[in-house]
Write a structure and sequence with these properties.
26 helices, 2 strands
Length: 748
């Protein structure tokens, strides 16, 4: 029973880890709720009134979520600097309340500065956010000059409570977060393998749903890999360790995705297209036949299950058990040992299982340290020797040159500061017409729709989501206010629940965030005895006005059109793709070693930026269906290109240490046309009048055909590289058509 209970706890832990990588959302929710609860407890002990309780709770929330640095010392410094900023902000707000014109003018200047200082990184962003939000808190509670000492005390208690909870109650060091992210990666990798097992057995009626789960699992695994990459610098003791973990994470991700493609190929009549794993709604391959005769299928199912167990099981449990023998058998497939009698496609799946098992072992060594080797088979020993040689070859590398910053109005923070200042001015004027007491809701909405957005389309979508969440939140606020009545502490308890839900769901849905915020505000109005139906309806009107002002300012003042921004980001992705592909092929052709890990990471980051920028185009409410489909198709093609580029980079990284991989100068010519085509597309994106064309020609697959005697022209590794180049070349040509770049066939 104890073992069973432990297993149940492990499964629950893995599910939580997979659903919330690094427990980042849980930590944010607990910290915020804890800081508010502690603030309320301290203030209540001194018998302060409800107005100061509400002010303290709101400031505690701001002081907690505004801090974004990853290490404790910078967090403490920013929190300490935030206190005088908050005190100055609330004092100026209170003093200027009676001077309408001067107060409004200062508010606009404050908003401009709060956005402008974002150029100074996380600390500038946090201090600007604290200054703006505390000014808003003062307006919300109706602060008076006579009550300033009490507000100062409440703010000081709020900051102190935030510090106690952050550093004492819910600490989160970079090393701990990275450890939790690694656990999430393992859990999501195991979930992806479980879906691959489902794919093995899926019939024609279930293949579409299974394939959709496979796409989702592949995307979630990649998301976790990117989160780990963003935390490596702070969470590891040195650069070499960071590069080692980054390498092993990339190996495991690539091996798992390749295994899914091999399974798709084994289930279909032809080689599966990589695009199938990245394009939502892509047609599933035909699965009218079984992947192999019964014995091979059962063996595949058993070995995939064993692979999943290897991912999840602690390394200590593998010693002297059947698990170590399973690991040995799976790694044997890499050396063509014990391959069953089956079709070539099915045998490739077994080889893919062996490669994934090797990646899992490398991940174990990188994350958990040296393993027991007493039960190693010769195949396992060879894999371990390869991993040790690779580990020894990894060094810190050279730091990349910092990107050249834009200046003046071209700088994103300057442009956004001007836009939000203009939008806020419009919101103040319009808000005053709606309500001389609650006009600040329009300003708050205008401010928020500009945060973390960079184009008119992004602001439009964010404004729509905030308005929808606000309308739904008003309904919830009416219900909750009626249930709570005059029970002060019941209302505060519900406020804490709503705040936790707000921060836990914030990264998942901005609509949900707005819903919980509005429902919480209904309770706060109840506590301040200012609640009424008209107040909540006024919030909807002010929210709509603020969103409209933000959209107008974004469209008319230094606008960045969605089309222009996506083209700029698309050009960046193509540049990074060229760097990774050329660097990998050059190294595989015998050229000098390059820093391919960092180049691949930059490609992933650029693709992530593009994916976010295309959200206005792919949003379900967009009326431009054809444009939405085109954007989804282009992003899916780029994700396909990135997968093949990462695979090429990973293979090239093995070259100095892997005995079965040798440089092949013939590879150099295979990528030239692809690079020229990428450059042609980039030139057309930069200038619509550029007379560039994409060239097609004999497929790289023709290089893979055996010679006249039927003997393969290349070894297995070189053949795999050529197949990646072939798919990359096809995807680049596929990009040309939706982007309006002419395609020229070769002249005969």
């Amino acid at each position: 029973m104890k073992a069973a209970g432990g297993s149940a706890r492990t499964r629950l832990r893995d599910r939580v880890a997979a659903s919330d990588p690094g427990l980042l959302r849980l930590t944010a929710g607990l910290r915020t709720v804890g800081a508010i609860a502690l603030t309320l407890g301290v203030l209540a002990a001194f018998g302060v009134d409800v107005k100061h309780l509400v002010a303290g709770a709101m400031v505690a929330m701001v002081a907690t979520f505004a801090i974004r640095e990853k290490e404790p010392v910078p967090q403490a410094v920013t929190l300490a600097l935030g206190l005088p900023v908050a005190l100055a902000s609330v004092s100026l707000s209170t003093v200027l309340t009676s001077r309408v014109v001067l107060g409004d003018a200062f508010f606009v200047v404050l908003i401009f500065c709060a956005v402008f200082v974002r150029r100074f990184g996380d600390r500038g962003t946090a201090l600007g956010l604290i200054g703006f939000q505390v000014y808003f808190v003062s307006l919300f509670v109706g602060a008076k000059v006579s009550g300033l000492p009490g507000l100062w005390a409440a703010i000081a208690v709020a900051f102190a409570s935030s510090a106690v909870v952050r550093f004492g109650v819910v600490p989160a060091t970079p090393a701990r977060i990275l450890r939790l992210l690694r656990q999430a990666f393992r859990a999501r990798l195991a979930q992806l393998i479980a879906t691959q097992i489902e794919l093995l057995d899926a019939g024609p009626d279930a293949i579409d749903k299974t394939l959709e789960r496979l796409r989702d699992g592949t995307a979630r695994l990649h998301e976790t890999a990117l989160l780990i990459q963003s935390r490596l610098e702070e969470g590891t003791p040195d650069a070499s360790t960071a590069r080692l973990v980054q390498r092993r994470i990339a190996d495991a991700e690539i091996a798992a995705e390749r295994l899914g493609l091999l399974l798709l190929t084994a289930r279909s009549a032809e080689r599966a297209d990589t695009l199938t794993l990245h394009l939502p709604g892509a047609p599933a391959p035909s699965v009218g036949h079984s992947p192999a005769p019964g014995e091979a299928t059962e063996r595949l199912r058993r070995d995939l299950t064993a692979l999943r167990v290897l991912v999840l099981r602690p390394p200590a449990e593998a010693r002297g058990t059947a698990l170590s023998h399973l690991r040995n058998r799976l790694l044997g497939y890499r050396d063509e040992e014990n391959l069953p009698e089956a079709t070539a496609a099915v045998q490739d799946v077994f080889r893919g299982i062996g490669e994934t098992a090797r990646a899992v072992m490398g991940l174990r060594i990188a994350l958990d340290g040296p393993q027991d080797e007493s039960d190693d088979s010769p195949a396992t020993a060879r894999s371990r020797e390869e991993l040790d040689a690779e580990d020894a070859a990894i060094d810190a590398g050279e730091e990349a040159a910092p990107p050249q910053e834009q200046t003046g109005l071209r700088r994103p923070t300057t442009r956004a500061a001007v836009q939000v200042a203009v939008g806020s001015s419009l919101a103040i004027v319009g808000g005053e017409f709606l309500s001389t007491q609650r006009w600040y809701w329009a300003v708050l909405t205008c401010w928020i729709v500009f945060i973390n957005t960079a184009s008119t389309g992004e602001i439009l979508v964010k404004g729509y989501r905030r308005l929808l969440g606000t309308v739904l939140g008003v309904v919830a606020g009416i219900v909750l206010a009626g249930l709570v009545g005059n029970h002060t502490w019941t209302a505060f308890g519900l406020v804490l629940v709503l705040i936790f839900a707000m921060f836990y769901t914030a990264p998942l849905s901005y609509t949900l965030l707005s819903f919980f915020v509005t429902a919480m505000l209904g309770l706060l109005y109840t506590l301040l005895h200012t609640y009424s139906m008209s107040v909540l309806l006024l919030r909807v009107e002010e929210t709509a006005l603020g969103a409209a002002c933000g959209i107008v300012a974004a469209a008319l003042v230094l606008p960045i059109r969605t089309h222009r921004r996506t083209n700029e980001l698309l050009g960046t992705v193509l540049e990074r793709l060229t760097e990774v592909t050329e660097g990998a092929v050059d190294q595989l052709s015998g050229g000098p070693a390059a820093d391919l890990l960092d180049k691949a990471r930059e490609l992933d980051q650029a693709l992530g930026d593009l994916r976010g920028a295309t959200q206005p185009l792919t949003h379900p409410i967009t009326p431009l269906r054809a444009r939405r489909d085109t954007a989804q198709y282009v992003v899916a093609l780029l994700e396909t290109c990135a997968y093949h580029a990462r695979s090429l980079a990973a293979t090239a990284e093995l070259l100095p240490t892997h005995p079965s991989i040798a440089a092949d100068p013939r590879l150099r010519g295979a990528v030239r046309r692809t690079v020229r085509n990428i450059e042609a597309i980039t030139a057309r994106l930069a200038d619509d009048d550029a007379g560039t064309e994409v060239e097609t020609g004999p497929s790289i697959a023709s290089l893979l055909e055996p010679d006249a005697a039927g003997v393969p022209r290349y070894g297995r590794i070189t053949g795999r590289v050529l197949r990646h180049l072939e798919r990359l070349d096809e995807a680049v040509v596929g990009l040309a058509r939706p982007l309006g770049v002419p395609v020229r066939a070769p002249q005969r």
